[in-house]
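Hey all, quick one. A colleague (J.T.) asked me to put the 2U9 job into the tracker so the inputs and the structure tokens live in one place instead of scattered across chat threads. No bug as far as I know, just bookkeeping. Sequence used:
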Amino acid sequence: MTDTAALETLEQDVLAQIAAATDEAGLDAVRVGALGKKGSVSLMMRSLGGMSPEERQVMGPALNGLKDRLGSAIEARKAMLEAAALDLALASETIDVSLPVRPEPKGSIHPITQVMEELAVIFADMGFAVAEGSDVEDDFHNFTALNFPEGHPARDTQDTFFMKPDAEGQRKVLRTHTSPVQIRTMMSQTPPIRIIAPGRVYRCDWDQTHTPMFHQVEGLVIDRETHMGHLKGVLQDFLAAFFETDEVVTRFRPHHFPFTEPSAEMDVRYERVGQAVKVGSGDQWMEILGCGMVHPNVIRNCGLDPDEYQGFAFGMGVDRLAMLKYGAPDLRDFFNSDQRWLGHYGFSPLLQANMATGLS
Ligand code: 2U9
């Protein structure tokens, strides 16, 4: 026999169970026990069929009301338990963003890229901007503007990679130095100009110290009162910063380039320390770069007046700088993509060169 008092007792009982449920599984067990197929409320619903119409009129709505209230109470408790579980997860599942990344990075920065970054940082500190250009150049920007006479050996197919003639019959070249970048800068900007031009250059050459593609950095300063003293100061400061030493002893030896006059090669004192080379002091001289005052013809070829503007330029091989600084013996290894070599000579991508905390 079912009466409303029994319903009242059942309701209090189930509500107490709902309130006592401490997790979603426990709460679901209460739901099944009351509202599931064989649950206490469902069984009572089923007994409605055997009641008199008068009884059913009272018990029907009472049971429906009970079912609805228990359903709502279960939903409310469920929402509360979910919120509490989320709060607990947020409090316990913290992520330490200061930990090193996982999996540990395997890639490394190639020593040439590293040296290029170091060069950019050092020269930026002295007020130089980085300029770039195309690897494929025309004869004018690679040779003529730079005061190379017709018939100069560098214009020979033995030294230079020529492209097939294009639609206009023009034979482009793979640039043999980054100097066309400076030519284009001089033709498009007004002095003062202070730039370095790092990049790939190409020459027909292949042995232990020469690869057909190699890397250069050239520098150019054009202003009204620029002289060899500025050139020497800039290059000495550069070498001290690059080789991370206070003492650099250098000397100029006269040389010849078509694009500079006077021209010089700069030597730096060094000594061997085991396999490595210590640059700065020592009793031996090593040629490190070429330089000079920009030839008046070059200034004129770029549309500037050489009586108004002078400047200096320098050039050096980036690969050789990397070999000297980091002690790699064979230039050809730089381009073999050997993972073990790269692992040994490569640099962490997470440590960037800068003047404040160190270059390498
Ligand atoms: C302009 C005017 C002058 C760039 C210069 C050198 C000296 C030099 C070599 C070093 C080793 C090439 O990689 S290497 O074989 N370069 O000695 N380069 S002066 O002179 C310029 C450039 C552009 C407009």
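Adding what we noticed when we looked at it: The pocket of 2U9 is lined by residues 177, 179, 182-183, 216, 218, 220, 257, 259-260, 289-292, 294, 298, 313-317 (CB under 6 Å). The longest strand covers residues 260-273.
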